[in-house]
């Protein structure tokens, strides 16, 4: 069933943003601190992948706090010139998986850099191995949404979004990548990360943002109990005196505030039967997005957001987009 507003209303839905005072200064300080650590990108080409059409590199770089963040860099075999690069972020609970999970963009002629997700990768669908050495203090519900949520400086998504910016910088550092043609993408949590990277990272030329998570969060927790937003509902049930504190922290990473600062061309997707990232939360980010934008609406789809059909739309959109 349809789980949110009618489509005509969604297209006009542009709620007020809850933007913390000093939002820009917060992120400027955060990224300056991160860049105080040498990026130290490392790439080791693997020779035993049995993938004849791509060169696979085991990658790592220094993310938030100088912590080592893993990844993959895949480059089409035989590429003679630096290529545009699609930087891929991953959905909730997942990690970088295996190299053959990420063959779409190399098959289309792009390099792709896949960022492992700190502290995730054991959700049962895509493995990872990057730890999160800074757990944060205070009470929390199992999962990531309330980890460090009593203080914006300690919040998990501050660390993760900083990693995302540094991943763009790491991808740009490799000689097989044209550093002036970086595209960020992801779905669900990965879509929220891509939205943040589009707002915060230098050198991004375009973004493909599928059913983004962590957007319009104050509204999301009012209309869905599905995971992962259910983590917040359970936390608030037992800690009602901390509701305002947590939501004030989340405002520092909310996709509405990121969207208002992102100016590169973007292709969004939204599904009207999605109970995990309801359509109104996606359209709120889309309608606040400050750059050129388009959106693909999937009326009969859920959280897969169009799935392989959306990938076809992305291939076409990116091929038609001037990246130079």
From TrEMBL:
Report what the protein is called. Cephalosporin-C deacetylase
Keywords assigned by UniProt?
Hydrolase
Q: Where is this region: Disordered?
A: 121-145
Acetyl xylan esterase domain residues: 2-320
Tell me one GO biological process term: polysaccharide metabolic process
What GO molecular function annotations does the UniProt record carry, in alphabetical order?
A: cephalosporin-C deacetylase activity
Q: Which domain of life does this protein belong to?
A: Bacteria
EC number per UniProt: 3.1.1.41
Which segments show compositional bias classed as Gly residues?
121-130
The positions flagged as active site in the entry are 188 (nucleophile), 274 (charge relay system), 303 (charge relay system)
Enumerate the InterPro entries for this protein.
AB_hydrolase_fold, AXE1_dom, CE7
Presence of the UniProt keyword Hydrolase in the record: yes
Q: What class of enzyme is it?
A: hydrolase
């Amino acid at each position: 069933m349809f789980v949110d507003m009618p489509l005509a209303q969604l297209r006009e839905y542009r709620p007020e943003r809850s933007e913390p005072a000093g939002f820009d200064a917060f992120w400027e300080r955060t990224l300056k601190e991160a860049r105080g650590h040498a990026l130290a990108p490392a790439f080791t080409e693997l020779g035993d992948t049995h993938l004849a059409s791509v060169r696979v590199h085991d990658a790592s770089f220094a993310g938030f706090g100088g912590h080592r963040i893993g990844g993959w860099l895949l480059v089409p075999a035989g590429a003679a010139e630096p290529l545009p690069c699609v930087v891929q972020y991953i959905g909730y609970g997942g990690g970088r998986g295996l190299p053959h999970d990420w063959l779409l963009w190399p098959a289309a002629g792009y390099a792709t850099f896949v960022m492992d997700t700190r502290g995730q990768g054991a959700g049962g669908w895509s493995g990872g191995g990057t730890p999160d050495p800074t757990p944060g203090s205070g009470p929390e519900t199992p999962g990531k949404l309330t980890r460090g949520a009593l203080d914006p400086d300690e919040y998990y998504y501050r660390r993760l979004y900083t990693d995302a910016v540094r991943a763009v910088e790491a991808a740009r550092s490799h000689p097989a990548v044209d550093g002036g043609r970086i595209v960020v993408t992801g779905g669900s949590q990965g879509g929220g990360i891509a939205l943040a990277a589009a707002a915060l990272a230098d050198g991004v030329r375009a973004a493909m943002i599928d059913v983004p998570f962590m957007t319009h969060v104050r509204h999301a927790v009012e209309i869905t109990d599905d995971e992962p937003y259910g983590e917040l509902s359970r936390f608030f049930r037992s800690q009602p005196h901390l509701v305002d504190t947590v939501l004030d922290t989340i405002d520092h990473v909310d996709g509405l505030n990121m969207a208002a600062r992102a100016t590169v061309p973007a292709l969004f997707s939204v599904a009207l039967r999605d109970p995990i990232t309801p359509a109104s939360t996606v359209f709120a980010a889309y309608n606040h997005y400050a750059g050129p934008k388009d959106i693909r609406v999937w009326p009969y789809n859920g959280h897969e957001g169009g799935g392989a059909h959306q990938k076809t739309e992305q291939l076409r959109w990116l091929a038609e987009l001037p990246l130079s």
